[in-house]
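[Structure tokenization] protein backbone as discrete codes
[Encoding] learned vocabulary of local backbone shapes
[Protein] chain in single-letter code, fold in tokens
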Amino acid sequence: MSLDLRADPVDLTAALVDVFSVSGSEAALATLVREALEKQAPHLEVIRNGDAVLARTNLGRPARVVLAGHLDTVPENGNLPSRREGTGADEVLHGLGTVDMKSGDAVFLHLAATLSSPRHDITFVFYDNEEVEAVKNGLGRIERELPEWLAGDLAIVGEPSNGVIEAGCQGTMRVELRTTGRRAHTARAWMGENAIHALAEPMRRLAEYAPRVVDIDGLTYREGLQATKIGGGVAGNVVPDSAVLTVNFRFAPDRTPETAERHVREVFDGYELSVVDMSPGALPGLSAPAAAELVAAAGGHAAAKLGWTDVARFAALGMPAVNFGPGNPTLAHTKQENVHTAEIRQVTEVLRKFLS
């Protein structure tokens, strides 16, 4: 099998979808991508790092744009191979990864082969293991081993965004709040102290919490503080002596991880808290020249990214970063995953206009 990078990006999407690449099994697809780039895009420098493939122009342009997309998918759910429905503007492509994010990869691969003299230098990064724990993410390995390949003036991550530029992203923090008590038989409950009951006050604070709505670069970010899990209990006739409440804080990118943690500790003042997961947000950076040009090419509209994506990794490197790709993100990871083919072509043309 081989990939035709110069084909309609819709056909290329279908071809990518039909190559199995669940996280940890990207080797075959990475081989096809590297071979296609070497044969069909001779103007690019191409290397492989693990199961990631990187390619770039070296034209001496004053600015460099990084286009990044992951090759892996979540596990199959009866949604392979790909299939099409409808015609024309109503045509839909179904299948695992059509949204997250092989349609974005197809756009980038098509541009890699058909833009031999872009006005910005371009780096293409097709990486592995995005859909699993962060320590396995191929971008982290590339940053450690080949940091110069991630340098640029703007990063565009092809995550699904309904064909709209979603700038920056919110940070996310997960904390565990623990309460302690004293065990007793429930028939003599007054002799104990119920740790689950002690969660009533933290739950009240959550219920009354008013999240911030923040405007940054003209984009609206909506924070959220939500209980996501409660654990505790010993047996059906025992007053529990310990309980834990898990809380997720989605914070606007004007907060650092340190200020976000300080805010959560203020909300739950008086309680034992431990931070178990933290990922910083990314400021939109739309005032950067390259980012402003992209927004203009897309019609002048951008939205805030409320979830966390790998744009945060690029922002941590000092680059403005946006999400821009075909597909509805609410369909990602579902059995019904599908993308309108017109959106794939629309994103392709916006990026072609911006880069050429």
Observations:
- Residues 18 and 81 are 5 Å apart (CA to CA).
- The mean pLDDT is 96.
- The longest strand covers residues 171-180.
- The radius of gyration is 23 Å.
